[in-house]
Amino acid sequence: METPVGPLTIVVENDAVVALEWVKPQRRDDHPVLDAALEQLSDYFAGHRQDFDLPLAPQTSDFQKIFGQALCAIPYGETRTYGDLAKLLNRPAQAIGQACGANPIAILIPRHRVLGANGLGGYSGAGGVETKIKLLQLEGAGSLLL
């Protein structure tokens, strides 16, 4: 799908979203989970949705799954720091940064809501930090960037 942050491809396997890739889709398959993901992402980018109700099955380590749950618990329009998540999960901030970058389902598992202690931090989605800024502005968290 085309979005304000560029083309995205949603990958569905075994009735769950397993990845969101920053590339133009090569084909469009009919699948109820894919249809729901496209609709929910469209609503999100239109400002009509604040959370997602989709089956997610990222192919990640056990820690990354727990980390993904912590990301999903950050409310729309709010942020946490890498340090906040490090304390919450009793892990070093570097492990949190690595888990953020390894998250295969960006936006749906909102890694853009994680900031550095003294700035934005990085972003591994296409467009890098500029994409992170666009997503935070979409959620009304733009004032946090000043």
Automatic annotation (TrEMBL):
<comment type="similarity">
    <text>Belongs to the MGMT family.</text>
</comment>
<keyword id="KW-0227">DNA damage</keyword>
<keyword id="KW-0489">Methyltransferase</keyword>
<dbReference type="GO" id="GO:0032259">
    <property type="term" value="P:methylation"/>
</dbReference>
<dbReference type="Pfam" id="PF01035">
    <property type="entry name" value="DNA_binding_1"/>
</dbReference>
<protein>
    <recommendedName>
        <fullName>Methylated-DNA--protein-cysteine methyltransferase</fullName>
        <ecNumber>2.1.1.63</ecNumber>
    </recommendedName>
</protein>
<keyword id="KW-0963">Cytoplasm</keyword>
<dbReference type="InterPro" id="IPR036631">
    <property type="entry name" value="MGMT_N_sf"/>
</dbReference>
<dbReference type="GO" id="GO:0006307">
    <property type="term" value="P:DNA alkylation repair"/>
</dbReference>
<keyword id="KW-0234">DNA repair</keyword>
<feature type="domain" description="Methylguanine DNA methyltransferase ribonuclease-like">
    <location>
        <begin position="1"/>
        <end position="58"/>
    </location>
</feature>
<dbReference type="InterPro" id="IPR023546">
    <property type="entry name" value="MGMT"/>
</dbReference>
<dbReference type="GO" id="GO:0005737">
    <property type="term" value="C:cytoplasm"/>
</dbReference>
<dbReference type="InterPro" id="IPR036388">
    <property type="entry name" value="WH-like_DNA-bd_sf"/>
</dbReference>
<comment type="function">
    <text>Involved in the cellular defense against the biological effects of O6-methylguanine (O6-MeG) and O4-methylthymine (O4-MeT) in DNA. Repairs the methylated nucleobase in DNA by stoichiometrically transferring the methyl group to a cysteine residue in the enzyme. This is a suicide reaction: the enzyme is irreversibly inactivated.</text>
</comment>
<dbReference type="Pfam" id="PF02870">
    <property type="entry name" value="Methyltransf_1N"/>
</dbReference>
<feature type="domain" description="Methylated-DNA-[protein]-cysteine S-methyltransferase DNA binding">
    <location>
        <begin position="62"/>
        <end position="141"/>
    </location>
</feature>
<dbReference type="InterPro" id="IPR036217">
    <property type="entry name" value="MethylDNA_cys_MeTrfase_DNAb"/>
</dbReference>
<dbReference type="InterPro" id="IPR014048">
    <property type="entry name" value="MethylDNA_cys_MeTrfase_DNA-bd"/>
</dbReference>
<dbReference type="InterPro" id="IPR008332">
    <property type="entry name" value="MethylG_MeTrfase_N"/>
</dbReference>
<keyword id="KW-0808">Transferase</keyword>
<dbReference type="GO" id="GO:0003908">
    <property type="term" value="F:methylated-DNA-[protein]-cysteine S-methyltransferase activity"/>
</dbReference>
